[in-house]
Amino acid sequence: MSTIAAIATATGTGGIGIIRMSGEKCFDVLKKIFIPADKKCDIDKVKGYTMKYGYIINAQTNEKIDEVLVSFFRAPKSYTTENMCEINSHGGTVVERRILEQCLANGAELAEPGEFTKRAFLNGRIDLCEAEGIIDLINSKTESEAKASIKQLEGNLSKTLNQIKRDILNNVAGKYDVLISNPPYIPYDSKNVTPEVRKNEPKKALYAKNSGLYFYQEILKEAKAKNILKKKNIIAFEIGENMNEPLEILTKKYFPAATIIKENDLNNWNRYFFILNL
Hints:
Elements: E1 4-7, E2 16-22, H1 26-33, E3 34-36, E4 50-57, E5 64-73, E6 84-90, H2 93-105, E7 109-110, H3 115-122, H4 128-139, H5 143-153, H6 156-175, E8 179-180, H7 195-200, H8 202-206, H9 212-226, E9 233-239, H10 244-254, E10 258-264, E11 270-276
Helix pairs in contact: 4-5, 9-10
């Protein structure tokens, strides 16, 4: 991902302003515009969760823009799980804007609204419930709203939902040895099947390597070989109309006692539930 930058504090006059950067080249950008007061300071070697005092300068003219403290966060131990820094400057729109302009002029891109939290979500640091908790906390108008939001941010709702999910899966596991739900449907016009084969040998095309039917056949072969289907089982598999007959024949080949129940699904696809009574 690209390196992004934005003003993190609210717009207006204040004592302190924060300009935040995140991304692989975060510290490369910082080195061009930040002069540590400690002349021996090597930005590449600064540890995470530390702050360094110094000045933000105009990289082209070396003019000092502001006296700052820079917070360092090393990947993956940061809000976004990427390399991050926060430039703590004096508040005010002019100073903050000038520092942000230097970040953008030296390799960073302007962050979209909410992009830091979006990256935290995409990189797996927070889940969707926790992301919603952050915005709810920011927008809370009462103390009770803030308390509820911080609990969601801490993952309380996620823990409850995950427990419900585990209970459902455990219940399913108690009834069936194997549950294969919605394996990826790969159309039979894969790269291994030429147009001529699709036109002149449709049945051969259905069994071609990487086709949907081939995928299902491999599942059945492995299940048979490992003898993992020992009692009533259910395998869910999505196919198109052209696989009706071949799929039923294939199932009976490996599991003659299988009872096939057909259930129509949306969008003109068919979903088949194969209940194997062994």
